[in-house]
Amino acid sequence: MPSSDNDRLKLIIESILFVADEPVEIAAFARISGHNEGAVLDAVDAIAADFQGRGLRIQRAAGAVQMVTAPEAAPFVEQFLGVDEDHRISHAALETLAIIAYKQPVGRTTIEAIRGVNCDRALATLRARGLVTEVGRASAAGRPYLYGTTFRFLEHFGLEKPEDLPPLPKVIEEHAPFSPFSLLPCP
To answer: Is the pLDDT reported for residue 13 higher than 90?
Structure first.
């Protein structure tokens, strides 16, 4: 039995995350538990800290939370589940993914300006793998789609939240054209 209101809130959140098939909105936890979103976020942070060094992780993005297995256990979980998926991503798709990850939300024309080539195929591949998604529309003429990363992206690269990406080297930010290789963590 939980010894405090915070322990009870953690119990509720952890239980819901365990059975949820999709990321759960922070607002949904607040509504279900009767707590405010700040208390829910504090409880999520506490659960994430409790999970460090264990087989589970908490992923957070865009006001939602998801429970996932630890990335270092992925080969064993895949073997247990009989998953035989090709995890390789082409260089073009990896470049496009890195641009989206660091510049999100970002439009196709910006991606193409940075890469210097058409990115339609790379975007289609990344969308098919569930690594990027349309997150909105730009206010520019034609209202082009803006792209951002997904929870699947976080899972693939073993990140808890988009802010866990390594910082861009200063030389890339200030002087050189954007070069995404070696920026994303190895899956």
So the answer is: yes
